[in-house]
UniProtKB/TrEMBL annotation:
Keywords: DNA-binding, Transcription, Transcription regulation. Pfam families: AraC_binding, HTH_18. This is AraC-type DNA-binding protein. GO terms for molecular function: DNA-binding transcription factor activity; sequence-specific DNA binding. Residues 186-283 form the HTH araC/xylS-type domain. It comes from the Bacteria. CDD domains: cupin_MmsR-like_N.
Length: 297
DNA sequence: GTCACGTCTGAAAATAAATC
DNA sequence: GATTTATTTTCAGACGTGAC
């Protein structure tokens, strides 16, 4: 597709627009002539540009941004903008337009907002590859499902790259960010949920996360309403209930859940469930037999 | 973050019940 | 009777919690 005042210009339109949370409307690339200007104007969609080479100026909410290779600027719907190619070294850029109820929120998560619509310092070749992948999918027109899934996938990788470049902003700007000690508790919970079969010392775990045992226990209980020991016991016993449905012996189930002593396992199981492991298993069998009997009847 | 103290955990030994 | 599995009791050390 030709476009005046451009050395090169191409655009791929998405023929399968859905009412999805996020829609890719079109994607393309251009190499305008020196001093080529768009705007002042507004768009009804979100338009993301990444500069592949050269430089230019983006004017947004009264502020002027000088942008070069690897920089990205984002135009939000309904907000006045303009941008202009440099007079000696005009830029070339790629773009993708999106819309949908989730689009703004997704951009915000990557650190792109109406007050900060710039991402700097990307590898231009890498980003160009992602834009090109979106273009190629749109060009192939392989049906609604393939096009939607593929463009969505490539676009999310693009967003991940923006988020990586904005990691310094995200680290300090998130209102709901976790404190260091809360993050330590989250790490401990993940450890409990995946390593429950291993012996655990709360003292060592707290030390490995950089906290004293008593302080760590306090924070853990504030967040989970359970002590670390109670929490891991709950994880272990829930896992034990699942394993008791198999043919493993009570001792094997206990070992698989982090109880090195089958006798202690039995005691704990009864404390939490009101039944010994064998009684619990017997209850499961009776239930299964009852169901089988009902099916026969 | 530390201390003191009461509580809980888990290993060991003894015992009981079930199965062959 | 031998073996396997589950339960109970005991106690040292680890843990949880309130006060500081």
């Amino acid at each position: 597709m030709d476009n005046p005042e451009h050395y090169e210009y191409r655009i791929q339109i998405n023929p399968y627009l859905l009412n999805a949370d996020l829609n890719i409307i079109f994607a393309g690339a251009a190499r305008p002539e020196p001093l080529h200007k768009i705007g002042p104007a507004v768009h009804p969609y979100i338009l993301i540009h990444t500069v592949e080479s050269g430089c230019g100026t983006f004017v947004w909410q009264g502020k002027s941004y000088r942008l070069g290779q690897g920089d990205t600027f984002v135009i939000f719907p309904g907000v006045l903008f303009s941008y202009e190619a440099d007079h000696t070294e005009p830029w070339s850029y790629r773009w993708v337009a999106i819309q949908g109820p989730n689009a703004l929120e997704m951009l915000k998560k990557t650190g792109i907002t109406t007050t900060d619509p710039i991402v700097r310092g990307a590898d231009p070749e890498h980003l160009a590859g992602l834009f090109e992948s979106i273009e190629r999918v749109l060009e192939q027109q392989s049906g609604e499902t393939v096009t939607t899934l593929a463009t969505d996938g490539w676009f999310r990788i693009l967003l991940a790259e923006f988020a990586r470049l904005n990691v310094h902003k995200l680290r300090y700007s998130s209102a709901g960010a976790l404190t260091d000690s809360e993050r330590a508790v989250e790490q401990a919970i993940r450890w409990f949920q995946t390593q429950y079969m291993l012996p655990v010392s709360i003292d060592k775990l707290a030390a490995s996360l950089g906290y004293h045992r008593t302080h760590f226990t306090k924070v853990f209980k504030q967040l989970t309403s359970q002590s670390p020991k109670q929490y891991i016991n709950q994880v272990r016993l829930e896992r034990a209930k699942e394993l008791l449905r198999t043919n493993l012996s009570v001792e094997q189930v206990g070992n698989s859940c982090g109880f090195t002593d089958p006798l202690y396992f039995s005691k704990q199981f009864k404390l939490w469930t009101g039944e010994s492991p064998s009684q619990f298993r017997e209850g499961l069998r009776r239930g299964a037999d009852g169901n089988a009997g009902n099916k026969k009847a």
